[in-house]
Amino acid sequence: MILLTSLVVWLTCLFTATSAQQPTDCIKPQPTSQAFFVMGCGKPITVDRLDPIVSPGRPSQHLHTVMGGSAFDFDLDYNKTQTSNRTTCSVSKDLSNYWVPTVYFHDKKNHTFTAVEQVGGINVYYQERMDWTDYCAGQELLAFPKGFKMIAGDTTRRAFNSSRVEDGAVEFICLLTNNEPGLPPFSGFPNRTCDGGLQIRIRFPSCWDGVGLGTFSSSSSSSPNSNSNSNSTGTASAYNNTHVTYPSRLDTGTCPPTHRYRIPALLYEMTWAVDAFNHLRTPGDQPFVFSNGDKTGYGYHADFFNGWDVDLLQKAIRDPSCGNETGGRIERCGSFREFLQSNEVQNQIEGLEQKVEGEWKGVLEGGELPGGVRVGE
Ligand SMILES: *[C@@H]1O[C@H](CO)[C@@H](O)[C@H](O)[C@H]1NC(C)=O
Ligand SMILES: *[C@@H]1O[C@H](CO)[C@@H](O)[C@H](O)[C@H]1NC(C)=O
Ligand SMILES: *[C@@H]1O[C@H](CO)[C@@H](O)[C@H](O)[C@H]1NC(C)=O
Ligand SMILES: *[C@@H]1O[C@H](CO)[C@@H](O)[C@H](O)[C@H]1NC(C)=O
Ligand SMILES: *[C@@H]1O[C@H](CO)[C@@H](O)[C@H](O)[C@H]1NC(C)=O
Ligand SMILES: *[C@@H]1O[C@H](CO)[C@@H](O)[C@H](O)[C@H]1NC(C)=O
Ligand SMILES: *[C@@H]1O[C@H](CO)[C@@H](O)[C@H](O)[C@H]1NC(C)=O
Ligand SMILES: *[C@@H]1O[C@H](CO)[C@@H](O)[C@H](O)[C@H]1NC(C)=O
């Protein structure tokens, strides 16, 4: 009898799960939704003016720091990712690429830019964010399909609006040295020194429409005068990211009915050695910029191009040893055991040769960033 009642409640739940209100009549246990594993990548596979999502087939407007598989190029598709013979990340079956703009120190006294050293590679958190509506609807977290790609953030954003969920996706953690208390995260470049370095985090959308892979349409309809070689503004205009969106509370909460499928909630975490420039700073001045010319920090963004063995990723998502009790430690994940690469191996992986000409390291003179990018007002 109890069983039967449960079944009825469970079925009711199945049919009402799309309305995002009450969990009271759903007898499925509230999921912990804290499971995650951390994919570390020891170092970039390249630093180059390339972006096969936003600017396929040509140099990108600005420079990127790129982690992951060695097939990264002007153009990329799923099959090409699988031709990578190496990756700088910790699972050899993950031939994805993960990329972000590069951080520079802007010396306003002599109009030079110096690339900031990136320390420790990247941590990509694969967070399994399901809520009761998904469980009650009998859904599970889905591995990214073949051909899937997406971006987070907006290279053109220069302000912070606290009522926009997506504006909270970028966080700057000003790391201090040993005994100083931690500071709350900043939403743009912090206007102070960070003696332990600057950690930048960005969260990706985790609600998917179940169909789209992220499409680039070469016949840009947004501007009749747009020429495919133009790199001045709105570089993302021809790339359509509407296949994904954020859940109601950024990385928790409910997905809208238009995007009801859950994919792993990715979070990129990278640290930059900004403290190496402390002696060159002018008090009260924020001297760091991204390679896209953004000095506010609000224009930070990140790209993901899926190169996973999709079945393996799905298996890991279902594998409890890859989830909540491991504190994110990927070494404990049974599904990945035979494919793990130590940090030492990752750091010995041969990088790619730069494909777009132009200096990016050292002190850049002439008041321009790579690609002729200037710092915006
Ligand atoms: C990718 O590779 C698969 C299997 O080798 C093949 O069936 C498919 O046609 C390829 N796709 C493209 C777009 O080349
Ligand atoms: C991958 O291929 C490149 C170029 O052919 C070669 O230099 C490199 O050693 C190969 N790496 C691995 C891990 O096989
Ligand atoms: C400009 O300043 C940088 C430090 O920010 C220094 O390394 C560089 O040598 C200076 N260059 C010139 C031309 O003065
Ligand atoms: C902030 O975002 C909200 C919600 O999208 C919008 O209604 C509001 O106009 C925005 N405020 C500013 C100053 O842009
Ligand atoms: C982006 O793609 C979606 C879904 O395919 C479509 O509805 C929308 O109109 C597209 N947006 C633009 C700006 O092309
Ligand atoms: C940084 O802080 C200083 C002193 O607290 C202030 O004068 C300056 O306007 C601030 N700059 C920015 C960009 O917020
Ligand atoms: C991990 O998940 C299992 C079930 O999936 C649950 O029983 C356990 O309490 C969870 N542990 C933690 C630390 O959340
Ligand atoms: C991008 O713009 C810069 C200067 O604004 C120019 O030097 C560079 O050639 C442009 N790149 C492309 C691909 O058009």
From TrEMBL:
InterPro entries: DUF1996. Residues 217-232 have a biased composition (Low complexity). Residues 1-20 form the signal peptide. It holds the Pfam family DUF1996. Residues 216-236 are annotated as: Disordered. Keywords: Signal. The keyword Signal applies. It comes from the Eukaryota. Residues 51-308 form the DUF1996 domain. This is DUF1996 domain-containing protein. It comes from Neurospora tetraspora.
